[in-house]
Amino acid sequence: MNPYPITIEPYGEQAILIEWPDKVEEAILYDILQLSAHLMQNCLESTYWEMVPAYNSLTLINREEHIEFDIWKRKLAEWYEGKPANIPADHYLWKLPVCYDLDYGIDLEEVAGILGLTVPDLIAAHTSYSYTVYGIGFLPGFMYLGGLPQFLETPRKETPRLLVLKGSVGLAGRQTGIYPQDSPGGWNIIGKCPIPIFNVKNPNPCFVSIGDKIQFYAITKAAFDLHKIEAEVGIFKIPKSKLDA
After folding, report:
1. With the C-alpha atoms ordered 204, 167, 100, 55, is the resulting torsion angle positive or negative?
2. pTM for the whole thing?
3. What angle do the packed helices 26-38 and 69-82 form, to 10 degrees?
4. How far is 91 from 241, CA to CA, in rounded Å?
5. Torsion angle, CA of 211/107/161/212, rounded to 10 degrees?
6. Mind listing the pLDDT tens digit for each residue in 205-230?
């Protein structure tokens, strides 16, 4: 028996939305990923279907044809009930460098003041936790990282910036994340990562997957410049370790 009540609803003519309880929990995320893997491995023609997992939902998109919703709703409910309790999947902890110099962390002092922390304490706290990748979207490669402790919770900026630079590391609510390209944005910027998160030229443009974890470590401006060059020429190796299943 599965641990969560789910709802299955139409999402246009060629898509179905499956939703779990409206909570941010790793257990829910991994249940979503297990169902996604079960469907792709055992139930659906992967050529015709695309899966989009997120915090508490899974969107199924048929690339070829209209979906007969009533038929597919029944099938999906049965497949969810019948999925294996645990489908092995490889997930990784990635360690990414961040420079928290005030030239890059343009909101760092303001955020520290809001939170009642010193700047060094804020940096130490931000680098002390690992964050779960709950979703990838908004921009290609933009990771929504959950797991920020409550004492670092920071409201979004009242007025979004028209330009946030690629690599900027931000805080918003109970989330942290990295802007994978220049874009508008309303997150509080506390540092910058020199490693590209998304590169369309790579066979796998985004090296991170939903369900992975990210941990940041602080670097100097000199190290930032060095790692940026290393990443551009393809010799920087991102530290990673496999997470226990």
Report:
1. negative
2. 0.87
3. 110
4. 9
5. -10
6. 889 999 999 999 999 999 999 999 99
